[in-house]
Structure to design on (998 residues):
């Protein structure tokens, strides 16, 4: 029977385990020189090696090793002085060699941790997610199943194979089991993956786009009765394409497990696929009989043995950890908690920082990116980064406002123009003839005209009822076609009506 | 002209006494004359070879400085990818496949102006010791057409010993160059593991495979060795070090003061009488040339065959997984209602021969969870022990020696139903592969009881390949003066030109 999330938590403790696959953004593939650019014509980025032609041999991409070491160091891992590749053997048409070159018992990085913080009813709460290992492997190709209702191999008329993705370098980050999260399990998982994404983005080793699959997360979930320390049977949920989906998937699996357990049934150890539309998972292949991958050391490759000096060199290039950076920026910019959270959620931290570094006032920079520009992005259903406006443009606009060349209202028009591709802020100002009316004489003419037209309201203000001034200021602004500085209008108006 | 050595052919070309086209045509004629009997070639590239010869002739005429073997024809084992030329590795599963790329060995041969006559027969995916496991039928030993030339590089060895080519490329995973060289009375060298790039060599057992040269003389073999060896960035296991001076060593041929170790475990019981006699005779000759002969003990060699038949099948079970009908080669059982899995199954069932299936099954079993430690794991430990045995032996001796094979060439069909008997023929060659070192087989004469060639094996430490040539050249010269003429003059003429 259907139960609520609260019922689940009342009875069970969830245990998480996360496996995150990250596509590295190296220019060439893991074991050959083919390009890794996303979205090319099928099978145009292939060669004898990644098509597994007879006789072809893999050669390790050194850049991928460097990226893996960076990731390991950023996740507080130890770096193995010597690690090996292994072959993971299984047959699948989109895997050209019918084995995947991966790392098995000797991963390149191991034993690390990531600290995260989530908001709870009791205030901010910290969790430490321990990292079991970080290892390198290669991606498979893609199968496209044509015909049939589901797009799955079952029921398809035929399948097409695209090997462009075959051999793209992947790094798999595996956590140790994460107990003790209680009802916050979904939030903890989300915060971990978000933190991981920020770390990886900071390292510039991956595009970390969940929707494009360059960051993929498999969530292992199991329940144990509260107070027990015997782990339950886990399910592994794949096909989770966003942070929100991850939260939903974990919540959904916890409820599904609890329902089974409450009914005295067993949870099956299996792979499940998250369904974006329903928020539920469906059963994939069963893992009851563990697949035998017949791992053995890859004889075509020599062990990876990064020199200690090289690791030291890489460590020296690591950027500031995102959590530390956030703390620093929050202090430097004197941003309230809520605003900081809004910026992180909207993913504008980098862009705001860049704008500030170009000389903008942090508050102004933040409010433009988070306000007007975010709104335009939302309305046109694109990401902020996809808009053609740059931190340099925003810094210029903020400067123009500060110099009194633009009002906030006019600045909005300039932003709109820049996004519409009309050029730089200066060009938009010139082309559209936007300028602030700061000629007091012209303003006074307008004020006198408005006060005459709305004499009743003007009298109220003259009698000391200041809130009524709003309507008059609005009318003056309209009269000057929005090009006046509202603050100056107010000043002059109140003076005119004896309220200065 | 075809009975000359490759070095002599190259000399004649340089002096303008002949042309590469003439030389190539003479070998193509010999192929026409004898290969219907020997069946050394799976594919003869007449047009390509003549075109290549013509281009070398043009370069010679233009006075270009060319490599020492430029214009000399060669036979290529069908395990090496050659762009646009059918490459099957002796298997039905690759029938009709034409590689879109050149293996590094082929690229080097082409760059050196060596004319590639065609692709030679082999045991399917190099799994076998007699070429009887070829999907395209066996190759016959030019010394006695009822017998096997050995294998797996039997086609290359038979081509050289029947004068269809002066030199050839083979590959040696457990003795597949040295054993057929021994059984056909020619010279064959397995270079140090990693000395010759494996890029484009269709993998049987990645950690054991190594391409190498065949020739009718030690010097010819050295000349070819020098062409194909060297570091290759496309092969991660390729050795990044200078190529040993093998040609200079083959020219010097001096063993005075050299210590030669006879491996205790690779002689005596199980070795044919005539093999033992010729081996002992060669040792005497070497001693007479001033070498010191000692005996060395390699106790782990007892387990070499067992380790080999776990490691090689394990690696092959994975290496051969790519033959799945999805991208190239044979495709069976396709059609309405077929699934990828059913097509893979039908193709692999039809495309692989019995011995290949046997080894895939053995290897799959040896790697499976629960058995890995007992089989693959133990085999790797034995491998380490064999490496240690060699290391110890090489502190006492400069080179080690043994008969190449326990017997001379056996009859076709004689061991085909007894894989164990067939496997035992590799007992003396396999340790070299497991240790990754180098080995040579050169003819030591004919066994008295059957008048068939006997091979003498020389082994040297990794990247000390020049010692093979130095020792081999000395023995060769002494034997030649004893015989009065090259051993191959005693082989039947097969109706072709000699």
């Amino acid at each position: 029977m259907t139960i609520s999330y609260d019922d689940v938590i009342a009875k069970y403790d969830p245990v998480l385990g996360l496996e995150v696959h990250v596509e590295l953004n190296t220019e060439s593939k893991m074991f050959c020189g083919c390009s890794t650019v996303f979205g090319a014509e099928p099978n145009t980025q292939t060669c004898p090696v990644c098509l597994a032609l007879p006789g072809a041999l893999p050669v390790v991409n050194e850049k991928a090793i460097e990226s893996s070491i960076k990731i390991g160091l950023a996740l507080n891992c130890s770096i193995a002085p010597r690690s090996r590749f292994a072959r993971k053997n299984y047959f699948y048409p989109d895997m050209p060699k019918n084995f995947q070159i991966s790392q098995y018992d000797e991963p390149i990085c191991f034993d690390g941790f990531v600290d995260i913080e989530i908001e709870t009813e009791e205030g901010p709460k910290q969790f430490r997610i321990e990292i079991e290992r970080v290892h390198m492997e290669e991606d498979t190709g893609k199968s496209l199943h044509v015909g049939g209702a589901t797009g799955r191999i079952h029921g398809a008329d035929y399948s097409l194979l695209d090997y462009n993705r075959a051999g793209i370098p992947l790094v798999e980050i595996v956590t140790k089991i994460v107990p003790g999260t209680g009802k916050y399990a979904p939030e903890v998982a989300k915060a971990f993956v978000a933190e991981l994404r920020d770390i990886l983005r900071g390292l510039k080793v991956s595009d970390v786009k969940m929707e494009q699959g360059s960051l993929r997360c498999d969530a292992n979930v199991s329940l144990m009765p509260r107070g027990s320390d015997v782990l339950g049977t886990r399910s592994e949920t794949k096909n989770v394409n966003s942070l929100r989906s991850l939260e939903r998937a974990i919540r959904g699996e916890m409820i599904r497990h609890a329902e089974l357990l409450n009914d005295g049934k067993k949870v099956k150890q299996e792979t499940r696929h998250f369904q974006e539309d329903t928020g539920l998972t469906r059963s994939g292949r069963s893992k009851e009989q563990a697949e035998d991958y017949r791992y053995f050391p890859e004889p075509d490759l020599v062990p990876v043995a990064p020199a200690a000096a090289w690791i030291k060199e890489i460590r020296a290039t690591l950027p500031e950890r995102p959590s530390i950076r956030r703390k620093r920026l929050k202090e430097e910019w004197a941003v309230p908690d809520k605003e900081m959270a809004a910026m992180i959620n909207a993913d504008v931290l980098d862009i705001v920082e860049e704008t500030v570094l170009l000389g903008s006032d942090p508050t102004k920079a933040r409010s433009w990116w988070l306000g007007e520009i975010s709104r335009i992005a939302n309305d046109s259903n694109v990401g902020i980064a996809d808009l053609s406006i740059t931190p340099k443009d925003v810094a210029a606009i903020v400067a123009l406002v500060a110099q009194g060349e633009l009002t906030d209202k006019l600045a909005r028009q300039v932003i709109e123009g820049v996004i519409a591709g009309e050029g730089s802020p200066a060009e938009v100002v010139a082309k559209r003839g936007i300028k602030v009316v700061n000629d007091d004489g012209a303003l006074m003419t307008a004020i006198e005209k408005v006060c005459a037209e709305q004499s009743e309201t003007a009298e109220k203000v003259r009698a000391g009822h200041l809130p009524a001034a709003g309507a008059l200021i609005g009318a003056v602004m309209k009269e000057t076609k929005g090009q006046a500085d509202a603050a100056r209008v107010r000043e002059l108006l109140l003076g005119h009506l004896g309220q200065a | 002209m075809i009975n000359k050595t490759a070095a002599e052919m190259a000399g004649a070309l340089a002096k303008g006494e002949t042309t590469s086209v003439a030389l190539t045509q003479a070998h193509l004629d010999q192929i026409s004359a004898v290969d219907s009997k020997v069946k050394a070639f799976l594919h003869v590239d007449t047009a390509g070879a003549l075109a290549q010869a013509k281009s070398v002739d043009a370069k010679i005429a233009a006075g270009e400085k060319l490599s020492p073997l430029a214009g000399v024809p060669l036979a290529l084992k069908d395990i090496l990818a050659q762009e646009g030329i059918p490459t099957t590795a002796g298997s039905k599963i690759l029938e009709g496949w034409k590689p879109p790329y050149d293996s590094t060995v082929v690229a080097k041969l082409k760059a050196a102006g060596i004319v590639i006559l065609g692709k030679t027969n082999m045991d399917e995916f190099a799994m076998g010791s007699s070429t009887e496991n070829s999907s395209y039928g066996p190759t016959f030993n030019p010394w006695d057409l009822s017998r096997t030339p050995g294998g797996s590089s039997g086609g290359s060895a038979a081509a050289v010993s029947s004068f269809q080519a002066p030199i050839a490329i083979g590959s040696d995973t457990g003795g597949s160059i040295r054993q057929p060289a021994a059984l056909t009375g020619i010279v064959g060298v397995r270079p140090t593991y990693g000395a010759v790039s494996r890029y484009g060599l269709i993998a049987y057992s990645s950690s054991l495979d190594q391409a190498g040269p065949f020739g009718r003389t030690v010097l010819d073999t050295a000349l070819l060795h020098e062409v194909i060896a060297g570091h290759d960035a496309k092969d991660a296991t390729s050795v990044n070090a200078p190529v040993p001076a093998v040609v200079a060593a083959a020219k010097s041929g001096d063993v005075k003061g050299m210590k030669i170790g006879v491996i205790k475990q690779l002689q005596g019981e199980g070795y044919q009488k005539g093999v033992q006699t010729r081996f002992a005779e060669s040792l005497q000759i070497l001693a007479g040339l001033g070498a010191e002969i000692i005996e060395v003990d390699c106790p782990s060699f007892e387990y070499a065959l067992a380790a080999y038949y776990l490691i090689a099948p394990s690696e092959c079970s994975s290496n051969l997984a790519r033959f799945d009908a999805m991208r190239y080669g044979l495709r069976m059982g396709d059609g309405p209602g077929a699934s990828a899995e059913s097509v893979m199954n039908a193709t692999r069932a039809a495309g692989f021969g019995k011995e290949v299936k046997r080894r895939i099954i053995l290897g799959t079993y040896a790697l499976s969870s629960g058995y890995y430690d007992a089989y693959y794991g133990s085999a790797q430990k034995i491998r380490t022990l064999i490496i240690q045995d060699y290391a110890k032996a090489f502190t006492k001796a400069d080179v080690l020696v043994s008969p190449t094979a326990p017997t001379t060439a056996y009859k076709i069909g004689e061991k085909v139903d007894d894989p164990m008997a067939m496997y035992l023929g590799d007992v003396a060659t396999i340790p070299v592969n497991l240790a990754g070192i180098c080995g040579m087989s050169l003819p030591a004469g004919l066994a008295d009881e059957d008048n068939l060639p006997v091979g003498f094996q020389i082994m040297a430490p990794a990247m000390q390949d020049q010692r093979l040539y130095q020792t081999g050249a000395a023995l060769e010269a002494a034997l030649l003066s004893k015989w009065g003429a090259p051993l191959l003059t005693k082989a039947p003429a097969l109706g072709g030109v000699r």
Notes: The longest strand of chain B covers residues 438-446. The mean pLDDT of chain B is 96. Residues 6-301+383-490 of chain B form a domain with the Amidase signature (AS) enzymes fold (CATH 3.90.1300.10).
